[in-house]
Amino acid sequence: MPFVWENANVYFLLTDRFNNGDTSNDLNFDRNKKPAKLRGFEGGDFKGITQKIEEGYFTDLGVTAIWITPVVEQIHGATDEETGLTYGFHGYWPKDWTAIDPNFGTKEELKELVEKAHSKGIRVLLDAIINHTGPVTEKDPVWPKEWVRTEPNCIYDNYQNTVTCTLVKNLPDIKTESNENVALPKQLIEKWKKEGRYEQELQELEDFFKKTDYPRAPKYYIIKWLTDYITEFGIDGYRVDTAKHVEENIWSEFKRECDLAFNRYKKENPAKVLDKNDFFLVGEVYGYGISGGKYYDFGDRQVDYYNHGFKSLLNFEFKRNAKQLSKEQLFNKYDSVLRTELKGRSVLNYLSSHDDGQPFDSKRENTLDAGTILLLSSGASQIYYGDETARPLIIKGTQGDATLRSVMNWNDINTDELTNQTLQHYQKLGRFRSSHPAVGAGVHHTLSKTPYIFARTYKKDNYTDVVVVALDLQKGKKTLTVENYFKEGEVIRDAYSDQNFIVKNRRVVVNSEFSVVLLEKE
Q1: 241 an active-site residue?
Q2: N or C: more exposed end of the chain, with fewer CB within 10 A?
């Protein structure tokens, strides 16, 4: 069975909030001020993720790729704003792109995480930031003016006011438009010398700029630093942060350097290569939705990010579609767009995330239906950590997006009825998706509206995949049409109830206590 990114089941987690595998790395750089609720480091790390990989947690969930928040060294200090004292636990406040933050772990531990994931057939996506540095604090001086701007703040009413500006106050914006040669920031030079790696870092930069003939502009330094993670760790892709806040041509250059690094890794490590897929880039173009087709509209300018290195974009529209459309309307819409305007491209659908303040099911009142819609829609799916365990998204005493970022609720598994029921549902659907490219990358065919039954078919080269799915069924005995998608007399399996059936007169009779049936060839 081929792996295709269009059908990926991606598990997105905040490393610091997922699982604490090593308590000895919980405090670094004197980050000992008391933060606002859920705005400090909680202890999650690479070792904790690796533990869950080895336990089979992701395999049982049908996860085919893990996306983890940025791993680079974060600012050492904390910011004190309206939301309270905050540290860079989330990974989006870089201080040094060439180092891994010790709160998350070590290079050796990240390497082990990737290798253990690959041994289970699971790809690893890291998170790439080129748009900004971390905020300025007493411990973290602003980068030189040749590197960053500190004003104006973006007002998002056109292209210019979205790209050439700071996302928010006190988040210095990298001058990605610049092609001028700039020297390394003084604070990086001093840091590297103190750590005993200045000469090495300098030589690597010298080699990179000589090989590429790029000017020593800020964006190219960062591209070099990010692509090093590919050749060193063998990661499979990047989720690109704040993609629309950077000139789009830069992503084409980034993709080219990523491909070169990935090909070099494959050539040097042939035994570790999972498949022939290219390096994968999925972009966070905030506000992009599948209805826009290939384009994001800034008001005064439309940009096709798919034409600048991206195989996929995060689909911010999905949760709205899931609320407003019936399943049949939703599935037909996505099938239509992905086979026309977005043919050869894809979207990454999600229902909740780390910074979307209006998730589909914020009170966790509809967890089973949420899983059904997410994992059976065309396009790739993104499970946000805890979607599958009904982890609360409303935490008393938090401010802003902190409420979305609570510690993973491991203790609820097998003790809380909703958690256990939701997890089993996600596991069955996730494994079905991971076993069948037809689910996310196939062609949708409606077989019956009442009861609601559809087929998905996928063909590529000599490989063919067919599934039939029935939803919102009554419990007990039900007769379901499969038309000609399975042969007469063929034994087929319901992956949801784990029962086998024989096709008779283009139908199967299923007797189960579930409202979902997932039919596949036995």
Answers
A1: yes
A2: N
